[in-house]
Amino acid sequence: MFKLVIICLIPLLVKSFIDRNGSPPICLSETNNACQEEMKKKNETLGRISHIYPPLTDSLKNYTDQCRNVMECASGLECFKGKSQREIFETSCDDVGTRRYDFDSCLYKIVTKIHSNDHNCTGGFSFENLFTADTIFKTEKTCVLNIGQGVCKTDDFNFLQDNYDGLIELYTNNPASDIDRWDHPSEKFYRMHCDVLRSDFVQKSLNIRILSVNQKNADVQKVLEIGQSAQKCTQKYLLVQSNDHYYKMYMNVQTLVAVMTDIFKHRPRLFEYRCLTSFSWYEFFGKVVECIDVGDAKKCVLALITLRCQKEMMADFKNQTATTIPRNESNVPVFSFSMYKNNEKHKFVFTMNNNSIYF
């Protein structure tokens, strides 16, 4: 009886701790059952890794070795026949290297501070290239630590200071093969740079009203520069996703500014529309970017303006009248048309001679 209980408990002891966003990994139960010993060793190693501080080189290597053992076992299963190495990896391994640990907020704050150009030691820093980022963190250790001391929690800063060289080497060492990069901290570290650019892009475009968007506006030009850098950053390595909302913004921001400049140039009356005064550039762009990404940008923008400003556009026709009088003909009624706003309702008035017909 005791042996039976132990046997029943074994699958629970070796169940994978895999935690991923999106759809669950395939063949997980088959892998748990067929690779019990490998899963058990991997999960024991995983259990020794903190959720607050990222594993350093030796600890990460130890876990990666156990992960590879599970992959080797799983690759021979019938369930995985015809499946990719990536699918086997996602079932066999956990996001240990690329996971965001509590400590990583410290590095994110440092990267954000560097992006603000508050420190002389970060001159020439570029967010477009991972290896340029490496240069700053590897050659300007004192500067980075000074920044960290001001923005990080005490425990996080102490961890950074005590493990700086090994940690930065791990976070900036870009593996050559895809399988090594799938769960490597360098991907996470590089993504931080893209996230900082995205945050700056959003914040600066939120501070610009849509009626101020034109190609000569210096603030608009700054957002365009950030968008270009963010686009290049996102395109690197494994980060780009064609359906990503922000990536579509980066791809189409130049087009939007050109279209808005042209529309406002030929329709100056729009500057008087109250319906547009409260619209931030970011809010407006967010509503049209999906349309612009697949359609005619000008039509997309005009459609949103029309939808947003129906009342004011209708009011523009108030008391406007068109009259047609036939030439050299008698007994033909005079026809006129007027459109105006009355008691918050739109009325159409057709006049034939002196008789008015209301609709």
Automatic annotation (TrEMBL):
First and last residue of the signal peptide: 1-16
Domain named T20D4.11-like: residues: 33-170
A Pfam family it matches: DUF19
InterPro entries found in the cross-reference section: T20D4.11-like_dom (IPR002542)
Keywords: Signal
TM spans (from-to): none
Identification of the protein by name: T20D4.11-like domain-containing protein
Species: Caenorhabditis remanei
